Amino acid sequence: MTIKDLEPRLLWTYFDQITQVPRPSKKEEKIIQFMLDFGKSLNLETRKDDAGNVLISKPATPGKEHLAKVILQSHVDMVCEKNKDVVHDFDTDPIQTYVADGWLRAKGTTLGADDGIGMAAAMAVLASTDIEHGPIEAVFTVDEETGLTGAFALQKNFLTGDILINLDTEEEGELYIGCAGGMGSKATFTYTPQTAPNNTYWFEIHVKGLLGGHSGSEIHTGLGNANKILNRFLWQLQRICGVVLSEIGGGNLHNAIPREAYAVVGVPADAQRQAEGLLQIFTNEVRNELRGVDDGIKIEMTATNAPAEVFDAQTTNNLLNAIYACPHGVLGMSRDIAGLVETSTNLAAVKMADGNKIVITTSQRSSTESLKRDAANRINAVFTLAGAEVEHTEGYPGWKPNTDSPILAVAKRSYQNLFGVEPEVKAIHAGLECGLFLEKYPHLDMVSCGPTITGAHSPDEQVNIHSVEKWWKFLVDVLQNIPSKQK
User: Fold this and answer.
1) Catalytic position from the list 16, 77, 218, 445
2) Which residues, including other chains, have CB under 8 Å from residue 457's CB and lie 6 or more apart?
3) Is 285 a catalytic residue?
4) N or C: which end of the chain has fewer CB within 10 A?
5) Residue 352: Cβ within 10 Å count
6) Is 144 a catalytic residue?
7) Which of 28, 81, 115, 144 is catalytic?
8) Cβ-contact 323, 228 below 8 angstroms
9) Average pLDDT score over the chain
10) Between 435 and 410, where is the model more confident?
11) Which residues, at least 6 apart from 63, have a Cβ–Cβ distance to it below 8 Å?
């Protein structure tokens, strides 16, 4: 079985087409053109704004003109992560999909169901000839994953709808009515290069095999953070043997829990066996700590040639102390919604940069604006004490839940009628574009839904095939039961 055999056929056909179009964040030119061509092929009004957001409008089916106008919203970009042993250029290569055990997956890369499956559902609604619905606007935003750029850039007169259905959540049977706001904090160390010392055992150390995952929706699961794990060992090794560092790096995107990290390290030549023994003990400790949560972790030490230069000792010490002290994970739980993470922070990436710099990227999330700022201030304090320069991004607002939402009532009733059970109503700790839409269009009544996707933002991403079929039936039913436009 392949993707071409799946039902609903129209939705999966469009998702298959989407996987063939490269669409990294900030490099969405090809997918933007693909969407423009799609809308025009259906003879539907199709527009693009200055940011690259695409809007395709479809009139109501006969007899449904009185219904409130619905905005179907999804984003066109995808997180581009792959396993190290996979050869794939996200700028040019299509995603290779396969079906296994009821799931659609990709071969060694992210699948892009986040949010390609939302795009495909909206396209299927636009192309359908057998669904009754009121007037529809489908908006496809750019650069959601690395900054919500498209949603930030929306003009207040671009959309005219009354109800917004966001198609970007990842658990079928759950309706989301709120989300966290977020911001980023970046710390930069500048080191003075030193000549590599003699009488030193040099090795590369790699942390790999971790699951990674979404820094919002999966931050509470206890997944391993490769940057924190690597630094923890280096911090211990520094105090027992003494270390010099020539390279360090790990993680990639601000909204992904880092799966892999590495460093080029030197210890005194006579401390080689001691370092190897300490690593064995440390690896066993970490495997025990992550047992049942992130069982695939591997920490490997391999001898390497001496580098030409190393970090100065003061920067090495400050860096290791700061990364160790930097918080990562859940900082607080919501008092309003049981089980909802209220505030968190993700130590996302450590990168070498030009100018003898080491840049640490972190992201903070909270459904409470003051706590979001407080989390960022904590990051600032840690790295400022260590002598780094710290800067913050502007951030984006959250979406406050409205339990009296009319579209929520419609969605709950539709799900109950279709499947005989009530959907769960939740808020999500991940960032959705809904907060920015509400900021620009405060009259909007909003709900978010989607099929079941696991492993988002990692090569383990997969979408449950049966859940897509259920979600599609639900979405169609909701569109057929939209309330009349208020006069």
Assistant:
1) 77
2) 79, 81, 110, 114, 212, 213, 214, 215, 253, 255, 256
3) no
4) C
5) 13
6) yes
7) 144
8) yes
9) 96
10) 410
11) 132
